[in-house]
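Table S2 (continued). Query chain:
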Amino acid sequence: MKDSRKRKPLLWALWALIVPAGLYIVYRQYPPEVLFDWELLAFIAFAVLTSLLPLNINGTPMYLVQWVTIAVFLKYGLFVEILVSQLTMLILLFRTRSASPRTERFPFNSLMFFVLSAFTGLVFFWAGGRIGSVEFSHIVLYGLLYQLVYLIANHLYLHVDDVLMKTSKSFITLDTIWDFLITLLVFPYAITLYILETSIGIYAPMLLGLPFMVMTVVLRLYNSSEKINIDLKKAGNIGHQLADRLTQNEVIDQFVEHVATMFKTDYAYVIDYRDSQLLVLRTFEDGKFVEMDMPAIPYTKGIAGQAIAYNAPLLFGKKRQWANLATVQMRQDIESIMATPISRNNKIEGVLLVGSRRPFAFSENQLQIMEILSTYFAVSLEKAGYMEKVIAKSERCGLTKLYNYRYLDESLESCMKQIEAGTLSQLSLIMMDIDHFKSINDTYGHQSGNEILIQLADLLREAVGEEGTVARYGGEEFVVLLPHYSKELALILAENLRKEIAGRAFKIQQSIQNEKQADELHITMSIGVASAPEDAEDGTGIIRNADRALYTGAKQAGRNKVAAYTK
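Corresponding output:
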């Protein structure tokens, strides 16, 4: 098969026989639910960019496009993943140089990409994987299976071709090892991209794609130096770990620790720039965080101020180079300094400053790497902010801003586990339901009903305070979870709540009348109380029993009453 004149027709014949028919079969057997949306367009854009920016390891280009194609497969399914893979194949076809003509490489590469995608996808489905899953363990387990099968099948495919072409190459080479290591390194990033996309949609590819592209560019620029490659690999690991953080405080703390370790600094400072003032948010000295009460200073002062003024990174090897700058907030024994602005959306948000007692401790290359890390840090902070908002929305009722049923259920299960473990001795639950709420909606309108729910939520939140967790259970039902409360204490609190609610005048705007008019309305609530461990052994039981007490002991007894569950 060394003769290209025989190889080319055979490849085209195999391609024509397998790829078009295979695409049709895949489409029929695994039809995609979505063929186009804006999220998919964003995925395709970053797949293209990744194809255009390969990494060079030992002179061999490594394409990391699978960080996108894995996420595409997990979200959109096999057919769409094949189409995206074929698109990236076309880009690689025109990007890479080879002695073989494109008319030969096209059928070979297209056939290879199709066979790999189809085979790996079938293994994924055969093993029990599901498209669109939101279960974390399921995503990681089957996503990793998909990744490993694809890697092995890819190298087997190429090895078989080498054998048929009678080229003397071993199955395992240094490039093979690098390919495995880098692809596995990208895997957490791909999973994070998929999970984040299910939470915030189109923002996920943008939030994770930008730092990924930046790091790729940096690796391309500095691959000639072994030390720089090592540092950049560490930077990539830091970026991946930052992307997994869910809160901004976690991002800041982990970023500072990793930067200090990576550059072997004695001091590290994250400085916030806001309202023309500089304020130190984190101080990391000699391997630990230090609480320091530093007053804010004008943004024009010090090295941080200069970095902001010029919007450029700064590097000083000796103290005499920066001695004329006001640095009252830094230790006096610092010699070497690196400082980079932290920018987000073309706006400077702060400055990262690291210092060392050693002169000339940092290099220009490290300064450039830290500049990239600062960009990664800013994007991770923004992503964490989005995640905090997403989590808050998932835990809160949008109308009343109380905790919702999901959060209540998790808190209740946690408390029951503590009771079972003996770390919590008593737990009570109050369930409340507004009497005749349907007639209120029918008479005054649903908007007025919502106004009552909001005011009632405020009343409960203020009355319960830090004693327990108040949640909207659904509709006009509310629940108060009270750790360390006996049934007797819970009944006293419930009675106080009942009286306060009955005596409160709720202000409403009548929304059914043609002319809106302010009015006041009095409501009552029926309340049931159950406790653990005496009334229930699990979370479902205590809710069920409190609900029984509410309806049989309060509602059926005339409403506007408090009743305790009795066996």
